[in-house]
Amino acid sequence: MDAKDCYDIGLAAYNEKDYYHSILWMEEANERYYFQKEFTQNKTDILNILSISLYKQGNLKRALIINDKLIELDPLYPNATNNSKLYKQELLDNGIDEEDFRINIPPLNITRFNNASYLYPAYRKAYEELCRGEKEIVC
């Protein structure tokens, strides 16, 4: 599997609102991206889905930091600036001072099975087959 394969699986999980698996696969895509000779997946797309998935799981500081990296790579990436504003506002609403946005990052908090679609046998079976490499990704 390369970064693109991991991204595709993570994107499928994201589209099903399965942010737990989306985070895991996007982190794997991000790791594999650096070890590839050819880049078949755009790094900014990986960071975008990772950032939003982290946000959806309540990891606001981590989402902001990943989104910062996205903006650093592509300041004009669609919605990245708006996402940054949203994450910052939510941090403020949670009583976090602006100078603390990027420090004292809590451990990663991800919740498994927060989406009923994960319980559907066909979805779970296809997902597990992809994970074992028994099934090809068809886009």
TrEMBL record:
InterPro entries: TPR-like_helical_dom_sf, TPR_P4H. SUPFAM superfamilies: TPR-like. Residues 3-89 form the Prolyl 4-hydroxylase peptide-substrate-binding domain. It comes from the Eukaryota. It holds the Pfam family TPR_P4H. Transmembrane segments: none annotated. This is Prolyl 4-hydroxylase peptide-substrate-binding domain-containing protein. It comes from Meloidogyne incognita.
